Amino acid sequence: MTPQSNQYRKDDKEPHLFLRSLKSGAKSWVYRRTFKGKACFLTSGLNPDAHPVTEARSWVKRINANLELGNEVEGLDFTTGDQEDAKLGITLGEAFKRYANEHTRKNRKGEVLNLSDRSKKQILGLIAPGITADQSRAAFGNAKKARKPGPLFEFANTKLKDLGAKELLEWYKDYSNKAPIRSASDAAWLKAVLSNSKFPIAKNIFVKGHESYVTLNKSSSDEGRLWRSGLPEFWAQLNGLKDQYRDAVNYIKFLLLTAKRSEEPLRPTVSDFNPKMKTLTIREMKSRTPHVIYLSKQALAIIQEQCAGRSPTEKIFQVNEGRVILTQINKELGREGEYAYRPKDMRKCSASIARYKNIPSHLVQAMLDHSQTSTMDRHYSVDPESVAEAWQTLANLVEEIADQTTTMKGNKDEN
Q1: What digits encode the pLDDT tens for the residues 279-337?
Q2: What is the pLDDT of residue 271?
Q3: What number of CA atoms fall less than 13 Å from residue 309's CA on the CB side?
Q4: Which residues of 170-186 are buried (b: 16+ CB within 10 A; e: fewer)?
Q5: Burial of 218 (0-12, 13-18, 19+ CB in 10 A)
Q6: Distance between CA 359 and CA 379 in Å, rounded?
Q7: For residues 103 and 116, is the Cβ–Cβ distance under 8 A?
Q8: Which of 11-20, 101-110, 249-258 has the highest mean pLDDT?
Q9: DSSP per residue over 335-360, as a string?
Q10: CA dist 382 to 4, 11, 397, Å?
Q11: Rounded mean pLDDT of 182-196?
């Protein structure tokens, strides 16, 4: 790399590749180029400390090839390059792209990190245009279906200086009535983007949404969860599908046995399994730090079965979140809509069982990979069976005390 004193250091061999270093200590590979009179900017998800410059150069070459062919490059930000003008005149869509590409955060160890690809996709999806079934078929074959426009797409081309706070509040009120859970999450992202762009908005304009944000993972109906009372029937359905969908059944069972998020077991390769120590390392977690699972006998048997005959570089679970068998199970059990079982319900079921059996909170925190013990209280409600048992216990106590009082009064009258 060519040594330079400013924030960006240009690569010696690839003129459009730069290493960006922020005052916070965060580093990232950045694509910068003027194409057809417009400045192009895109931040790579590659970590400079973990990925060599050769990978970043290949990434730049792919972007250049797509631009020359006229293909759309996801997340690529076209700006005028004037920072002051951008703050005043950029559109909401450009503000979202800038936030997704440049925002950083700190993990539990205090390390400064860029947003994950998953978070970027979620953020940019709020301003994404819709796509028809024909367009989807032409672009992706049969891999994807038609998609509705993002909830903020109507404002994507509106300049921030022309965007009124009252207009946003009306949008949020209407959106929260249609989707009370998702709207709170999307409003939180919108607020972060507007704050990042120095948009003059009242701090409490989305207070209601912020309060709802702590319960985002709660289903609109508790019946949609896989509670322990339904686990025997669900487990039997899994066993019945084992011969037909071995990998998918093992994946769903592994989620239940380890309380992992639905996408996490899909990442490890065979080399991440340590048979001597009986551990499995997941290197790409939500916390952006590796997480080691100490495998139980049941989970170990599943991993050993999955690794048999596979090379060290192959994925242990080669499935797509097991949705095929969940669809079959839901159909068999007559569950649909908000009552249908989802991959995320496996983790919720495991967490509720851990709470029911009074596993110490600090151990549950470690198993769920939470940064603090209070996270479970905010995101995982108590299962209905435990609540019902608590009501019954209370009723028994009330009746017992009432009977004792009656007996004591009777004895006093006799005397």
Answers
A1: 999 887 666 678 889 999 999 999 999 999 999 999 999 887 567 788 888 888 888 77
A2: 94
A3: 3
A4: ebbeebbeeeeeebbbb
A5: middle
A6: 17
A7: no
A8: 249-258
A9: --GGGS--HHHHHHHHHHHHHHTT--
A10: 56, 54, 21
A11: 77
Phi first, then psi: give them for residue 269, nearest 5 degrees.
Answer: -100, 175
Name the strand (E) or helix (H) holding 188: helix 180-196
Structure tokens at 47: 């970590």
Burial class (CB in 10 A: 0-12, 13-18, 19+), 119: middle
DSSP helix/strand/coil, 310: coil
Least Cα distance to 331 among 323, 262, 246 occurs for: 323
Tokens standing for residue 207: 């207070």
Place of tokens 């709660």: 218
Identify the residue whose tokens are 């993990």.
107
Determine the straight-line distance between the first and last CA of the chain, rounded to whole angstroms: 100
CA 105 and chain centroid, separation: 15
* SS3 per residue for 18-83: EEEECCCCCEEEEEEEEECCEEEEEECCCCCCCCCHHHHHHHHHHHHHHHHHCCCCCCCEEECCCH
What are the φ/ψ torsions at residue 170 (nearest 5 degrees)?
-65, -40
82 is written with which tokens?
Answer: 């004037």
Q: What's the length of the chain? A: 415
Q: Taking Cα atoms as reference points, which of 261, 378, 263, 287 lies closest to residue 105? A: 287
By the 8 A CB rule, do 27 and 20 touch? Answer: yes
pLDDT value for 136: 61
pTM for this one?
0.50
- 247, 329 in Cβ contact below 8 A? no
